[in-house]
From TrEMBL:
<feature type="transmembrane region" description="Helical">
    <location>
        <begin position="7"/>
        <end position="37"/>
    </location>
</feature>
<dbReference type="Pfam" id="PF01925">
    <property type="entry name" value="TauE"/>
</dbReference>
<keyword id="KW-0812">Transmembrane</keyword>
<keyword id="KW-0472">Membrane</keyword>
<keyword id="KW-0813">Transport</keyword>
<keyword id="KW-1133">Transmembrane helix</keyword>
<feature type="transmembrane region" description="Helical">
    <location>
        <begin position="69"/>
        <end position="90"/>
    </location>
</feature>
<dbReference type="InterPro" id="IPR002781">
    <property type="entry name" value="TM_pro_TauE-like"/>
</dbReference>
<comment type="similarity">
    <text>Belongs to the 4-toluene sulfonate uptake permease (TSUP) (TC 2.A.102) family.</text>
</comment>
<dbReference type="GO" id="GO:0005886">
    <property type="term" value="C:plasma membrane"/>
</dbReference>
<keyword id="KW-1003">Cell membrane</keyword>
<feature type="transmembrane region" description="Helical">
    <location>
        <begin position="168"/>
        <end position="187"/>
    </location>
</feature>
<dbReference type="InterPro" id="IPR052017">
    <property type="entry name" value="TSUP"/>
</dbReference>
<feature type="transmembrane region" description="Helical">
    <location>
        <begin position="43"/>
        <end position="60"/>
    </location>
</feature>
<feature type="transmembrane region" description="Helical">
    <location>
        <begin position="133"/>
        <end position="156"/>
    </location>
</feature>
<protein>
    <recommendedName>
        <fullName>Probable membrane transporter protein</fullName>
    </recommendedName>
</protein>
<feature type="transmembrane region" description="Helical">
    <location>
        <begin position="199"/>
        <end position="217"/>
    </location>
</feature>
Length: 244
């Protein structure tokens, strides 16, 4: 049989190419596809540090648009607390349960985005209490799967931030949270075994970004997003079915 990590490498290449084209989802895509082959806890020590490099580079490039007040006073306190809770819960949940929860999250996110693209529905702001609850839930999701993006983006829907400030702020969130997760993985000595894969996958990250930058002006982004969300929806269903 083919080593599963060869497939994971292909998923990493696909995920970072998609991120360079659309600006979203490298970790969610790589993790959801990878979870079809390997346990979620085994994937995190590889995929999280890779994302630190990507989000750190992009956060630095977009630092002039950062909304520091929103980041430091609202998002990070709730997300960091939620991430710690999720990380602790991860150690007590069976891999099948993690796959089921991840699959359901991916299905909800993909179907919601497909509906929005189809109907062009405007985003509506949430009440303050619900917004904070969603951010906390996003942190828990990030601690469980390093995939708090779907819930956090939903929490930020309808805010007064323009797309440049929102993107820069979210990039700083991922860089901070994934750096924190990497430190936790290091303390638990879970990064050492992932070192060979990290070294092999680093060039794939670079290739994905270069290919994505080349394809970005040459593809219809809306149709491409529809294809990606449809792929994610199918992946989420497969994860949920596989966990039963």
């Amino acid at each position: 049989m083919i080593d599963p990590w060869i497939w994971i490498g292909l998923f990493v290449l696909i995920a970072y190419t998609i991120e360079a084209i659309t600006g979203f989802g490298s970790l969610v895509i790589a993790l959801s596809l990878g979870a079809l082959l390997l346990p979620v806890p085994e994937l995190l020590p590889v995929l999280v540090p890779l994302n630190v490099l990507m989000s750190g580079f992009l956060a630095w490039r977009n630092r002039q648009h950062l909304d520091r007040a929103l980041l430091l006073k609202v998002i990070l306190p709730l997300m960091l607390g939620g991430t710690l809770v999720g990380y602790l819960l991860q150690n007590g949940l069976a891999d099948q349960v993690l796959k089921l929860l991840l699959g359901l999250l991916i299905i909800w996110f993909a179907c919601r985005e497909l509906w929005r693209l189809r109907c062009s529905t405007p985003a509506r702001a949430h009440p303050a209490w619900l917004n904070r609850l969603l951010i906390l839930a996003a942190g828990i999701s990030h601690g469980l799967f390093a995939s708090g993006g779907p819930l956090l983006v939903y929490a930020m829907a309808g805010t007064a931030l323009d797309k440049f400030r929102l993107r820069a702020t979210l990039l700083c969130v991922w860089f901070t949270l994934n750096t924190s997760l990497s430190v936790l993985l290091l303390v638990q000595d879970r990064l050492a075994s992932a070192r060979p894969q990290l070294l092999w996958f680093l060039p794939l990250l670079v290739v994905g970004v270069v290919v994505g930058e080349y394809l970005h002006p040459r593809v219809n982004e809306q149709r491409f997003r529809q294809t990606v969300y449809a792929l994610l929806a199918v992946t989420g269903v497969l994860l949920a079915v596989q966990s039963v």
